UniProtKB/TrEMBL annotation:
<protein>
    <submittedName>
        <fullName>DUF1853 family protein</fullName>
    </submittedName>
</protein>
<dbReference type="Pfam" id="PF08907">
    <property type="entry name" value="DUF1853"/>
</dbReference>
<dbReference type="InterPro" id="IPR015003">
    <property type="entry name" value="DUF1853"/>
</dbReference>
């Protein structure tokens, strides 16, 4: 079962578009493969958090791509005994004989008062995008990186942020077309969210999604439909396949 799921998630990653575009550093997708190399569906035994699984499947994509090599992954950088962060990937582009710095992320955001909040509202799309562009991608220019890798100098920087954007159908507000001046891909505005007080307006059975299925949803047997709602947020998929977040009535303030 897990092997089948990994293949489905890997396919989603290879086909899904980025949340944002409009900057040379913002990739719309992972580099496509022209061949039909079977996907690497070897079991995954690493950290079960969604972000780690996502990064692992991105690594496998690069490893299987005939034009790329994974030179290094998850490079921890420190300076003056302080942690600067980690670089996701250094990728060798064999076709161009260049070195690329890649950062990848999978995120889910809900529109509220013209801002895109994560279900944990401490996370926001504008803050995440700013940090990725102005901090994460800049780490390969730091003295800490140059000291640790004096023979490596990336020729280009690349950010891929995939996921899904959610709007509330019961509380209409205009949907922004940009974030920080970068265009939002309207194809990713593909989910709904609502408060617990509005669940009586839902007309279909809802099924809780475990985190490893947040991107792809169910493809087989669903669990028992939800009949009660926890106090925290829950990510669901309806009988017809629609993605939903159900959040507490005092969200986003309650999770900030």
């Amino acid at each position: 079962m897990m092997k089948d799921y990994l293949a489905e998630f890997a396919t989603w990653i290879s086909q899904a578009s980025s949340l944002t575009n409009g900057d040379p550093r913002l990739e719309t997708q992972l580099p496509p493969k022209a061949d039909l190399t079977p996907m690497d569906t070897a079991p995954y035994h690493g950290n079960p958090r969604l972000g780690f699984l996502y990064q692992e499947l991105c690594r496998r994509h690069f490893e299987q791509h005939p034009d790329y090599d994974v030179i290094a992954e998850e490079i921890q950088l420190q300076q003056d005994k302080k942690t600067l962060g980690a670089i996701d990937f250094l990728i060798g582009n064999k076709r161009q004989s260049t070195l690329e710095h890649w950062e990848v992320a999978i995120k889910f955001y809900l529109l509220k008062d013209n801002r895109w909040y994560g279900p944990n509202a401490k996370d926001r799309l504008d803050m995440k995008l700013s940090r990725m562009l102005e901090h994460q991608l800049m780490m390969s220019d730091t003295d800490a990186f140059k000291d640790q890798f004096p023979d490596l100098a990336p020729n280009s920087k690349h950010l891929l942020m995939q996921g899904r954007l959610y709007v509330n159908p019961f509380h209409f507000e205009p949907v922004p077309k940009q974030c920080l001046g970068f265009d939002l891909d309207e194809n990713n505005i593909a989910g709904f969210w609502c408060y617990q007080k509005d669940i009586t307006k839902l007309t279909e059975p809802m099924y809780t999604l475990p985190k490893h299925l947040w991107a792809t949803g169910f493809s087989g047997t669903k669990p028992k439909a939800l009949t009660s709602w926890p106090e925290h947020f829950v990510h669901c998929q309806s009988e017809s396949g629609q993605f939903w977040f159900i959040v507490p009535n005092d969200w986003p303030e309650s999770s900030m």
